[in-house]
Amino acid sequence: SFNISAPLARDITMSSLIAPLGGCGLGSQANVVVKIRNAGTESVSGFPLSYQVNGGTPVTETVSGSVASGADLTYTFTTPASFPNPAQLYELNVYSALAGDQRADNDTLTRSIARPALNTGSASADTTICAGGTAVLKATGGSAYAWTDGPSTSI
User: Fold this and answer.
1) pTM of this prediction?
2) Residue 120 phi, psi dihedral angles, 5° rounding
3) Cα distance between residue 44 and residue 68, in whole Å
4) For residue 67, which phi and psi values (nearest 5 degrees)?
5) Measured between alpha carbons, how far is 20 from 22 in angstroms, rounded to an integer?
6) What angle is formed at CA 23 by the lines to CA 27 and CA 79, rounded to 5 degrees?
7) Per DSSP, what are the bridge partners of residue 114?
8) Residue range 110-154, pLDDT digits in tens
9) How far apart, in whole angstroms, are the C-alpha atoms of residue 41 and residue 23?
10) What are 11-54's pLDDT values in tens digits?
11) Contact 106/77 with Cβ under 8 angstroms?
12) Gap between the Cα atoms of 66 and 73, Å rounded
């Protein structure tokens, strides 16, 4: 079922999380970048935008620029989020607190952010191999390996 209603005057929507997305490139700190949309009919400015990791202390900043009706804004928090432990799943909540927002159910975005375990792989020690000789190559700790004879040539 659906409802057709008049547009709201004040309505900020959390559209998407741009960063962080998690994965192997995620370090212990990362910038939080979100896309927000002014779905209301009035331009808005000077409203609080916050994020919270795992229910911890919220980081709140003020969006100082004006966001016109129907416009999108990509906002990068100046305070990076902390993801201190590898091999952990974090819950990131990003939310707006526009005064007089007439639709609260689209003000929060929640995403799971995975920081994978650090690779603790190793390879066997360097060994000199004479032309025509053979060697046994061993590696542990990873899921895929590429052996090369230099910086760019695979063997």
Assistant:
1) 0.75
2) -115, 40
3) 7
4) -115, 115
5) 6
6) 40
7) 89
8) 999 999 887 665 556 666 666 566 767 677 766 676 666 655 554
9) 38
10) 999 999 999 998 878 999 999 999 999 999 999 999 999 999 99
11) no
12) 9
